[in-house]
Amino acid sequence: MSFSTMQKSVPTSLDDPTAALTNRTSERPWAGLPTGEEADVLLGRSLNDTYVIEAALGEGGMGRIYRARHTRIPQKLFAIKVLRPELARNPGVQARFQREAETAACISHPNVVGVYDVGRTLDGWSYLVCEFLEGADLAAYIEQKGRLDTATAVHIALQVCDALTAAHERNVVHRDLKPHNVFLLADGTGEVPERPTIKVLDFGLSRFLDTSDAQLTRTGVIMGTPAYMAPEQARAERGDHRVDIYGLGTVLYATLTGQAPFKEDNLHATVLAVMTGDPERPRTLNPDIPEALELVIQRAMAKDAKDRYATMAELRAALEPFDASQPARGKPQKLAKATNPHRGSWAMIQTDDFELGTSRSRLLFYMLAGVALCSILLASAVSGIELFTGPISFTRTELGLLLLAGFGTLLTPVILLVARLRQTVWGNSVRVLELLESVRRPVLAAIVAYGLATLGLRFADEVLSRFGVNPTFAPAPGLAWPGWSLVLPPVAALAAAVSLLRKRWDGPDTRRWVRHLLGAPLLALTALACSTLLMMGANWRATATHPIAPEPSVEGAATTQTPPDPGSAESDATPAGDPAREPAQPPASEPPTSRASDEALAAAIAKGIDGLLPLSEKHPQDPRVLEPLVMAFAARATSLADAMHTAKRLFAVAPERVTDNDLRFLVRRAATTPGDASKIAYELMTQHMGSAGPDLLYELLGTAKARERAEQLLATPEVRELATPALRVAYDLRTAKSCAARVPLLERASQLGDERAISILSPLSTGSKTGCGRWKRSPCQPTCAKEASEYLKTIQQISARVSKPSK
Greater confidence, 23 or 759? Predict the structure, then answer.
């Protein structure tokens, strides 16, 4: 297929409605040939007595292209561009025409169209003598064949790389690379082969990089073909050789997808899209494109020239693994270094299809991990905030409303962020990898720093304290201090910030001494800063509450007397509050040294914990010291567990204090507080408070937080043995499965029951004056109407017995 035959094709889908922006169009021959060759005055004319014009091949906005024959070598054919006379009188157009001849002539390469001569006839015709080619331009070939396969597209792109490498070595930038300017040569049969040889055409917009000609390269003039020009060209800026790298990316895009990167309705919309938008993802249009090759295209077409390949040679190296004509090299291995990575851009070129295929899922994973980490740190910080505000508790309704409010507040920015990511990042593999690296590093750094700091604290708490080292970080092994929830998040945030800082500054534009500083010195400073934060936290912990000394063994402290079997007559006959059922009393007299002086006690109480704790270590069996220490610990929201430890010591040396209302209130409060304080409180009620412990458990049946645990403990034989007969009968009445099942218990209740039994029987045996019937105005029957009379009789007997004064 000849040059002239192909040049009479119709415009393709790769064409732009406005071919160029500098008052010139590509020399497209379909722009309108004369109806008869006799209308052309140049036909048959000899130019410079060397070239005889034989036929018109095509016409464009700047002139016509003719086939000419050498006068002295008849077998030699040429293609001659002739400027229109009116344009030849324009100095700027004439200068560009001359520049095309100069730039193309200085490049000697088999993939660049040859330019042999330039001249001007006496009557004002300017002409350019070029190599005569047979075949088709890439745009027409794609229109005829459709999008090309990967092997053919890469084969063509590699040759364009070679041609432009030769041009760049001569400091020449093409600036108008597009499918129309890539010509596919025909073979001996006149057809374009499957693996064609190419020629790069039309250096009319090219320039020398070292030129200072303001007329040819002045800023503010947009030059190029809109759909294929680089963003800096669309902004009318001076571009360098990376303009051609972008251009080759657009050629690859068009070759593999069958359409131009940007297809807008008019010139201005196209230029705006080039400057601000992104082309549709290539694999969306052609899923057969390898993901690694898509990445090469997207990096070549990066908006910022610094994010593109640095040279044509680097782009060629990225394309070579996809060249089917080369010997098999195996699957490209993970990463290939970029020769000149730019600060803020990804420094590695991903070539592994599996890694690329999972890049989006990995990005989503690390983003969710970052959100989860932030949520966990914020949630755990609540316990640290309680150090300053006191206990923070919410009902289920309040917590639900709080979560709903937080979700609603974050919903809008999250939706906007997701939309932004989908619009600007998700369709571009280069940006996905950049964002993946920007997210992965700080998230991993934060998790590692947080984990190492936590392990270090656990080591100090769990290991060192077992070797006799006084525990600084917690009052006892395994007992955490809530303040760490405010100290550890800054450690994680610092590690994440340093990771981002290293990525941002680690580039070729960074000074050498700064890059050295980003290595071991910065990591050492980060470790030192994290250690400093932890030491500050340790100091805060030490000054907040001193560690509790181990509980002393109390000599002579009586143990709880084992009661008789609950079902025996002796058990039921024992009256409530019998001293035989209470813990034994301490010895009548104590050594003088076991009691603190009144002056020392008053001074210690004035100082609070800092005064009482050392005094309790000096006088471990003095209840007058231990009880104020319990209250001092309980006054701090985070020291409730310490208060329970001290209460255990107090009850061991002063069992009579288990009936004190203030101490009972503290034990109840601790039981309803999640954490170690609750565990110790339940231990006190079941092992160290005698019959007062089960009484407190029974009271906890009325609280939502502790009801389930209290029911479990009251049902155990050990706790039931400690309970008073009055409590046992009240518990049996409460847990009876039916009204009739309570009748056999009424005799015991009348003899042993107290107000607790009355509180159970009374609601079951009395109705209400209103609340029933159609209008809710009729009296309601008792719940246990059949047994109501027996219940009321028992209530009267209990009331008479309880109100009877004791002798």
Answer: 759
